[in-house]
Design the sequence.
């Protein structure tokens, strides 16, 4: 007993909620909304064999149909010989009568409720219509609603016009050619540096003897360097030894910076010979043309 009334706050006398015997009547607009939510096959060919692509809406059960199935009168007369049989027949008749009365009462209440909901729906629709006709558009709505409509109605990605597509193609082509030109100039500068540095290569025994004599005899008194690391000259040679032996190679960083500045200002290579720009001008004839023009101006 205590467990049964605990969920009601230990208060007795609470009756359970009445059970809905008949299905709830639906208004016209509720039936339309339910029809929209009905799952069906968009392509009739995809419907299973023996089934309809559009299932029919569910039919509402009336009170008479419910009574005809649940409160049928006895088909065969029962024997009423004893008092017990008579009492059971009377109880059965009373239960059937109460059930019929409950069904009819619920049907009456459902119809009244349906009329009230229909009236409330019509009144709400009339009020919305009246408000929409009497409403004057404000400045905020006039400026905001078009932008909101454009967000939901227009496509998220606007396709390019033929002019924009052609402009984009030309830009990509120009960027690609510019990058190719920079790479070609860088490769040409590296090749020019390599070509000019070949003049310092040791290719004979006489050149090797001269270099050994210069390094180990002429610079014998140089004490400003680490004796474990050979003394090197020239920016290219210093960079080569630095990449080979690491930062322990001795060289003057300020001298290297000055060499780099000279190369940028004079347009020369690391060996202080003509750079790529001067070579290109000489090969194209611009240098000769400039000399002739300056000579004529004098």
Sequence:
């Amino acid at each position: 007993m205590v467990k049964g009334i605990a969920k009601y706050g230990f208060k007795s006398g609470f009756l359970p909620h009445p059970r809905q015997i008949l299905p709830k009547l639906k208004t016209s607009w509720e039936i339309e909304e339910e029809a929209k939510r009905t799952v069906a096959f968009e392509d009739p060919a995809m419907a299973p064999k023996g089934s309809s692509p559009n299932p029919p809406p569910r039919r509402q059960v009336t009170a008479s149909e419910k009574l005809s199935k649940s409160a049928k009168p006895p088909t065969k007369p029962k024997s009423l010989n004893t008092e017990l049989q008579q009492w059971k027949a009377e109880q059965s008749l009373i239960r059937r009568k109460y059930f019929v009365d409950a069904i009819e009462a619920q049907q009456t209440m459902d119809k009244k409720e349906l009329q009230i909901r229909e009236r409330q729906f019509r009144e709400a629709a009339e009020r919305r219509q009246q408000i929409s006709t009497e409403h004057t558009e404000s400045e905020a709505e006039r400026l905001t609603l078009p932008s909101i409509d454009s967000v939901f109605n227009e496509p998220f990605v606007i396709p390019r016009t033929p002019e924009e597509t052609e402009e984009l193609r030309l830009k990509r082509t120009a960027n690609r050619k510019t990058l190719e030109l920079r790479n070609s100039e860088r490769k040409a500068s590296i090749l020019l540096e390599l070509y000019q540095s070949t003049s310092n290569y040791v290719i004979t025994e006489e050149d090797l003897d001269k270099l050994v004599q210069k390094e180990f005899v002429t610079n014998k008194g140089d004490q400003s360097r680490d004796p474990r690391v050979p003394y090197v000259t020239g920016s290219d040679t210093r960079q080569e030894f630095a990449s080979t032996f690491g930062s322990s190679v001795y060289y003057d960083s300020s001298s290297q910076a000055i060499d780099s500045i000279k190369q940028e200002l004079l347009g020369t290579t690391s060996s202080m010979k003509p750079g790529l720009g001067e070579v290109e001008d000489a090969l194209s004839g611009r240098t000769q043309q400039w000399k002739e023009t300056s000579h004529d101006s004098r």
